[in-house]
Amino acid sequence: MPLPVTALIPRLREICGDDGVITDPNRRRTYESDGITYHAGTPGVVVLPTSTEQVAAVVRLCSESGVPFVPRGAGTGLSAGALPHSQGVLIVTSRMRRILEIDIANERAVVQPGVANLEVTRAAAPHGYYYAPDPSSQQVCSVGGNIAENSGGAHCLKYGFTVNHVTGLEVVTPQGETVRLGGKSADAPGYDLLGAFVGSEGTLGIATEITVRLLRAPQKVRTLLAAFESMDAGGAAVSAIISAGVLPAAVEMMDALSIEAAEAAVACDYPPGAGAVLIVELDGPAADVDAQFDHATQLCRDAGAFEIRTAADADERARIWKGRKSAFAAVGRISPAYIVQDGVVPRTALPEVLRRIAELSAESGIRVANVFHAGDGNLHPLVLFDDSAPEASEKAAEVSGKILDLCIEHGGSITGEHGVGVDKACQMPEMFSPADLETMDLFRSAFDPGGIANPEKLLPTPRLCGERPGVRKDVHPLVAEGTAEQF
Amino acid sequence: MPLPVTALIPRLREICGDDGVITDPNRRRTYESDGITYHAGTPGVVVLPTSTEQVAAVVRLCSESGVPFVPRGAGTGLSAGALPHSQGVLIVTSRMRRILEIDIANERAVVQPGVANLEVTRAAAPHGYYYAPDPSSQQVCSVGGNIAENSGGAHCLKYGFTVNHVTGLEVVTPQGETVRLGGKSADAPGYDLLGAFVGSEGTLGIATEITVRLLRAPQKVRTLLAAFESMDAGGAAVSAIISAGVLPAAVEMMDALSIEAAEAAVACDYPPGAGAVLIVELDGPAADVDAQFDHATQLCRDAGAFEIRTAADADERARIWKGRKSAFAAVGRISPAYIVQDGVVPRTALPEVLRRIAELSAESGIRVANVFHAGDGNLHPLVLFDDSAPEASEKAAEVSGKILDLCIEHGGSITGEHGVGVDKACQMPEMFSPADLETMDLFRSAFDPGGIANPEKLLPTPRLCGERPGVRKDVHPLVAEGTAEQF
């Protein structure tokens, strides 16, 4: 039998200090959800460690007591991966935000997990370097959270995900041991547990020190915005660019509804009457960027772009990006409530899937705004609904679910960069066979035999998803029996 | 108690057919060692499956009987990773060599594990694509073996290792289950077990179907050879090139002794009197390559190159590479025996480590030829000795070991691309803490609770390395007690 979480409080105060432990119910409520609106109640207790040693001591205490823990970075996640456990310890990394080293000779930065993504680039910039992964939330999201979710961003078409930029981790395992995975070099002998840890959503432990690759800032960046009458025409431009062998840093697309939302929110002044806008950004050596930029511009024109704007300087570039970067939040201006979906399809299936999404929307009367990383087939449909209307949220959830089914049908994936968390745990059996899921569970249990590390996230459990092959046994249900809170 | 391996033969014949099972002692002897000369005796039995189903059935049979198995590709490995088990089944993939799909629209190839590395590029070339990882043995080594060892090659400075080019695997686990890791897209939800499988040296199972990324052939390739009076001067050129932000596809360096060996073997006609030659290859868009090539040439000149040759066409490029690619084999011309070492140091530590290697060589009287991937700090010292001289092999092994110690001291690694296998299992505790090794062992045991998948490889065992913290327990010692064969 696990101890009640309250029994741990005196020891937690010894480890983290009085100001490092939050027990007050109102202050604990701040941590009720992350970037997506799920509620599982308030965390049993919140701790704010400042060092690896404190994290290890807290986790060891949880392990000895059978009490679950949930790691949390900046709380910007979009899959409820940091949803707290009402009988558990929430370990928040917000006080671990030191940049420990900027090692330009080896092109690496070493940081604590609470450091905000953009701070790494700020620290490297004076040396002419930057950190490539750039989720839209990069001003606030933490590098530790990026590790947990293997975060992407607009530029992962060319530069890859977080996993491609992390070369070393210090990790506290669910049994409270501190281990090192990788280092400053590109490859290490033994199992590449580094790659498996990145994207493990807090279920294998907590990264307490992170070594990332720094890239030399590109010599030149050029950005264009092309307006098309239809999504089909925009999609044709994307295909033409990629198959011509042009590799942009980013290829982003927005449909009429998301353009409307962005205009309402930030007056981004995109070309009026556009059924689709495409943002194409190229970076690299100047000679190469110029040649490819001209090529991409011509391909947009050939695909029917009725207006093409090119950014003359950094200000104009920022203006082009403004509409895209604010799109998610902007949708709040045109709809009281919405679901942000995240799915992937092979690039070749994009036109077909977008048409099917339009049909789904027409049939159900639920509006869907499409904002997406077109270059790598990562869709972010925003499913809009009025939460005051009866059954609107259920209908929206149904449409949202059907969009994911479409992704799976077309050989894609249920998440491109937001992660599984609680949000998509029940969809894992639609993508993976029972043998696949059992293998993942074996792996997880090797790290966490007690089942205390972020339980009920990532893999399906019977309480959330029903009993079926490949579904792991419940260990620490997020909500204790009998509490009224509802997912 | 495990069954004797001979008890499995009738069932193995049912699974693989009579011609798919080798029991004849002389034929079994062919499989005694791989690319490095260790001997642990002949395999108990050899099977040559043709399909995933046959592999799975063989592994299930091993698992039920407690009999160990060893996977083997083309047998070109350099860490004794495919060393057979005298009481086990050797599973050879040489009959699984179909290219299943060349999917140009999604830039992927799907192949069976026995396909030779270079065959993938041959199949993709008519479409203007190629497969990037290029170990020196690429004409014969298998893609499955490349997966097991996470193979690199001369061009991994720019393009990364095998792990950066595999997006999906079908795998038979040590319990005989067939699971899928990843697919055609760049990212998948759940644990990235794909990354952990690549480089797992056959200890987590056998890859039976492999999906790799295809890259568009670069528009232009340019290659130069620069001759320097000393290794120090050549090393300075490498540092200058990298810190100028030039990213060559390959930067290879050879010292006087390896140049001498290459001349003796293939008459590569490198500039006479060179203390070091540097090969620099750039690829990419023509405009970019030309600009960077001129820059790299100038930097070599500034660092003191007394002769620079540039390849005018593919023939001349092949001639420049000929000396480098034949260097390992060529050393046989100037020394009766030698050890190929494989270590990594941070690029910044290269000059210091090379000086220390020269000192070690002078002190011991053992000649060391240096051939290496200079751009990423991956050393391949060839430690030469006369195996007819008393204690020469012991002295050479001592120098070879001290070179690895140097790599570790300087924050590097005991292997860059050849793997751990049997060869370096006992050195793992010098690089990893007991907690690190226990974590790896937990992971391995989650996949392979019976300890039957390539036992005694990768992680240290007491029989080979003595008892100490972090050393896993012996499960299936490669050589049964009392047999005379010696490592």
UniProtKB/TrEMBL annotation, chains A, B:
PROSITE patterns: FAD_PCMH (PS51387). Residues 38-217 form the FAD-binding PCMH-type domain. It holds the Pfam family FAD_binding_4. Its cofactor is FAD. Gene3D superfamilies: 3.30.465.10, 3.30.70.2740, Vanillyl-alcohol Oxidase, Chain A, domain 4. SUPFAM superfamilies: FAD-binding/transporter-associated domain-like, FAD-linked oxidases, C-terminal domain. PANTHER family: GLYCOLATE OXIDASE SUBUNIT GLCD. This is Glycolate oxidase subunit GlcD. The lineage of its organism: Bacteria, Bacillati, Actinomycetota, Actinomycetes, Streptosporangiales.
